[in-house]
What does this fold into?
Amino acid sequence: MLNEEKQNIVSLGTILLVTIPYLLYIFAKFQNESFTTIEELKFWATAILLLIPLRIVVEILMNIAFSIINSILTKETHSVPADERDKLIELKSTRTGLYVFCIGFIISLISIVLGYSISTMFTILMLAGIASELCDTLTKILYYRKGV
It folds into this structure.
C-alpha cells in the first residue's frame, strides 16, 4: 500500500471521527432550543465556523501522528516529492469534491426557494461540505489503487 493511500485512509478516518460526533452534538443542541430567525442564523454560522478550524487542527495533528508512526514502522526517513501522477490525482479528486459541493449548494438554494427553513439550508450545506471531503478523499484512494 502506498504512503499516499495510507495517508488518505487516515484522512478519511479523521473526517468521520471528528465530523459525525460534532454533527450529532449540533443537531441535538438545535433540537433542544427554540430560535428566532436571527438567532438561528447565528447558531448555524457559529456551528460551521467552529467545524472548520476543528477539522483543520485535528487533520494536522493526525497527519503528524501518522507521519511519525509510519516512519517508525517502515524505517523510512524521507518523503518522496509529489510527481505528475500525484498532482493529476489531486486535481481529479479536487474536481470531484467541488462538483459534489456545488450540487449540494444548489440543492440548499432550491430548498429555500421551495419554502424550507434556514436550518434545512444550513444542514444541506454542512452535509454537502462533508460529502465533498469524503468524495475527494475516496477518489484519491480509488485513483491510487486503480491508477489514473
